[in-house]
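[09:14] KT: can someone run the structure on this one? pasting the chain below
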Amino acid sequence: LFIAIAENKTFLPAELEAGKVYYVLTQIMIDELKEKVRLVPVKRNSEYWEKVKEWENELTFIKPDEGARVSWENKKREEIKNVVNYYNSLFAEEKQKYQGLDANDGR
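[09:31] RB: done, structure tokens below
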């Protein structure tokens, strides 16, 4: 489950396979003076499928600071748990509005 939070919460469920690379685009939108975030899965046959390889060549890859990640996670653990619980509490019909990734969407 990928989660993005701005003035909204959005989710991208995922069933991933080890050893594959998956792509998720983040879109920032300003709507009624609110900043919202949207997660867009890059799926086979989507408009972005071929573009991500091109974009990948233009990126500079960085490796996260593991100590900083662990520190952030420890500070936010309760908040993260609450957001995941919120997602899990949604009715099935509500969850269907979130597009997801499956193992076949990896390269």
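[09:33] KT: thanks! The mean pLDDT is 91.
[09:34] RB: yep, looked fine to me
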